Amino acid sequence: MQLIITHFTTLRRVRDAFNARFPYLNLEFFVDSNADGQYTAAEKLTNHALTFESLSGKTGLMELHDTDTAGNVEQKFATTFGVVVQVFYKRGASWLLTTTSDKLSLFELNNRSLEYDKPIQHEMPADALDRMELE
């Protein structure tokens, strides 16, 4: 997927494009206000109408591939646009940060999350004859 970032590109537009390609993954944008390299809920950007120009002033083109790891995507955003991004994956009803799975590809993360979202298949109870044979 290609992301073309102009001065008018909003965080929402990038998030939506990423989520359309990887429906079980999400991008969250942060500002490291105390420069400690750790991102808290208080540093999460909730105004997705912000533009890349207002955050970093940088524009350009970024290619994201299924084989890119979550950590690589986060690094690409930092080096290309000077924007802190964290990849989250869906597990049930929750969105989890990819701290321990940063080395997994976007394809792998998306598929794992899809598996978490599938209902568990229950086996049919054994009929009376099967129960008798087991006993």
Short description:
The protein has 135 residues and is of the alpha+beta class. The chain has helices at residues 11-21, 52-55, 70-81, 106-117, 128-134, and strands spanning 2-5, 25-30, 60-63, 84-91, 94-97.
What can you tell me about this protein's structure?
With 135 residues, the protein is of the alpha+beta class. It has helices at residues 11-21, 52-55, 70-81, 106-117, 128-134, and strands spanning 2-5, 25-30, 60-63, 84-91, 94-97. A hairpin with a 2-residue loop joins strand 4 and strand 5. The longest helix has 12 residues, at 70-81. The relative contact order is 0.18.
The end-to-end span amounts to 58 Å
Assess the beta-strand content as a share of residues. Answer: 15-25%
Tally of separate helices: 5
Largest sheet data: 3 strands, antiparallel
Q: Tally the beta strands.
A: 5
Give, in spatial order, the strands making up the sheet with the most strands. Answer: 2-4-5
Which descriptor suits the 3D outline? globular
Structural class: alpha+beta
Uncertain segments of ≥5 residues (pLDDT<50)? none
Q: How confident is the prediction overall: mean pLDDT? A: 84
The arrangement of helices and strands along the chain is EHEHEHEEHH
What helical percentage do the residues reach?
Answer: 25-40%
Overall radius of gyration: 20 Å
